[in-house]
Amino acid sequence: MVMQGWKRRIVYVVMFEVLGILVASSVLGMLSGASVAASGLLGVMISTTGVTVNFLYNLAFEAWERRSAATTRTVGRRVLHAIGFQVALVTFLIPLIAWWLDVSLLQAFLYDAVLIVFFPIFTFAYNWAFDAVFGLPDAVTRKAEPAV
């Protein structure tokens, strides 16, 4: 089944977030001893926070880029973007996790560290599986059109 365009993007995001919430909630529940309801709601809050921070961070990053003389995104700039986003996200998640689970900031950091390690692996596997099920996007499969 090949899926393209906005439908592909929406299905991708919804499935990613739902699966991510289920897995992250389960892991946090097992590590913390929190109930399924408590860890499930925490997973939803983490997901919502992640999406919000991502949106706002990208707005700020792109505003900074507009003031820059560079016209491309170098590897260094991409690394800066990724590290900056993780720092911003952790800044919001650690207090949230500590408050919700009633644990110390250090314990919340350790729980978040598990998520920081987990999500790149999850993202890699999810993308691979998603492409296997729904096919590659047109941007990958479309042949370059000859210049006229």
From TrEMBL:
Spans traversing the lipid bilayer: 12-31, 37-59, 79-101, 113-134
Domain of life: Bacteria
InterPro entries per the UniProt record, alphabetical: BTP_bacteria, PACE
Pfam families: BTP (PF05232)
Domain Chlorhexidine efflux transporter: 5-67, 73-135
Protein's organism: Burkholderia paludis
Name of the featured protein: Membrane protein
Keyword Transmembrane included in the entry's annotation: yes
UniProt keyword terms in alphabetical order: Membrane, Transmembrane, Transmembrane helix
Keyword Iron-sulfur (UniProt): no
